[in-house]
Amino acid sequence: MNLRSFSVAFDPKPIPCIASSTPNALAQPTLIFTHGAGGTLTSPAIANFSTGFSRQLPILCFQGNSNLSSRTNMFSAVIDDQKTPFNLGGRSMGARAAVMAATKETQCLVLVSYPLHTGSQLRDQILLGIDPAVKVIFVSGGRDTLCDLTRLEEARLKMQCRTWRLVVQGADHGMDVKPKKCTEAVRVKTGEVVAEWIKANDDSRREGRIFCDEDGEVQWTGWEGAEKGTTDSPKVLQQSPAARKSSSDLVTTPESKAGGKITTKVRPTSKKRKSTTDSTHAPDKPGSNQAKRTIHPGHNDSLDRENVSGRTRAARRAQFP
Questions:
Q1: Which segment of 32-36, 43-47, 113-117, 313-317 scores lowest on mean pLDDT?
Q2: pTM to 2 decimals?
Q3: What's the pLDDT tens digit per position in 183-235?
Q4: Where are the alpha helices (DSSP H) in 238-303?
Q5: Is 9 buried (19+), middle (13-18) or exposed (0-12) by CB count in 10 A?
Q6: CA–CA separation, 108 vs 89, rounded Å?
Q7: DSSP symbol at 244
Q8: Over 57-119, what HEC string results?
């Protein structure tokens, strides 16, 4: 992978940038991306996403401050420096800045962990102002407390542009998942999927999921055909497969059909070991599943109800052939 560090002129100080690409990639980046309010260029969340994206397409990430207006102006400065219309994106506060910096030349917006609300306060006004020609992809964690999936769908219904949704099951706002060892691979996969989406996206397939399976492997379902505005069982998506497995013994597995839908299968329960105790020692109960005994004429059935050994019972039964 090729990494190039440079700075873009900006007042009061230059903007640090890192361009990432494969050796044979185009010189110009296809996505300008920035981190969240408390992040940096080396923060794992942005570094992992950039690694995955650059395997498919070149990307430029820049360092900003925690001021939304200033971050928006930084986007403009980087765009002017590169002298090419780009796709814009960011995570968390950086995603909001990307929306505000979008121009008529912007083709796609990549909004990772978009902070749609803070408590009961909904922040969707700038989303409603996005140009209808722009394509938008939301990359959201199923446990993100700043972007409830149902409220995101409500916002998508009101937006004039086309939108896609990539849900990372079990992920929080920082794209951390359980088990922890899956987190880096999940973040890298989100970058790969977004890059592939930029290269080719299908209006008829706008829903996709990434999850970590029970073996610790990252799975991508592919794009599904759900329309914009469907809630797609957000309560299920907010739990990781590992959590669902431990709580309800369900295992999530991808189907091989086109579209990659996820189904849940009930794990079969283990068979109970047969008791070594003679079943005839226990008294019969109404409605029990014990086999009916054949009673010979003259047989004293009360003997079978006594707690006696098999040998004694056999001897007594011999008296009543």
A1: 313-317
A2: 0.72
A3: 999 999 999 999 999 999 899 999 999 999 989 999 999 999 854 444 443 33
A4: 241-248
A5: exposed
A6: 8
A7: H
A8: CCEEEECCCCCHHHHHHHHHHHHHHHCCCCEEEEECHHHHHHHHHCCCCCCEEEEECCCCEEC
